[in-house]
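Message: I would love a firmer grasp of how sequence relates to backbone shape in proteins. Thank you; the sequence and its tokens follow:
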Amino acid sequence: MRVGDVLPPLEIEITRTLIVAGAIASRDYQDVHHDADLARAKGSPDIFMNILTTNGLVGRYVTDHFGPAAVLRKVAIRLGAPNHPGDTMVLTGSIEEVDGGTAVVRILGANGIGRHVMGTVTVTVPTPRAAPVSSSAPVSSSTPVPVPVDAPSEGGVA
């Protein structure tokens, strides 16, 4: 994990189901997130994704890259162009700062009409711990293990 490292892009198909499920999961029952006719009446071409769904997708993007032990410390995002059904959002990211096991990742999510989300995610990645070394007897790969020549086999016959 170094400053300047680039995360691989993640393409997310924006489906009507994703938008509605995200709104329900986050208890956001605003009609513009599930009712196309009411969204159109309010000036939108269709329903659109809420910020909490976007926030979750940004978090997924970062933890998919850094692994399940990664801990999101701060997510600071701003929405731009809405995500409508039938579009694809592509998330990209790069590491801006590193301090020990903590990094700040710059995130951008773009769709067919522009930048949907931009911001930063602060993530801590635990460092792997070395396996404990047994203190009983030193083991060396160069020390041969003696095998008796006349030892009986498993069947009891030498």
Q: What stands out?
A: DSSP finds three helices and five strands in the chain. Confidence is low (pLDDT under 50) at residues 151-158.
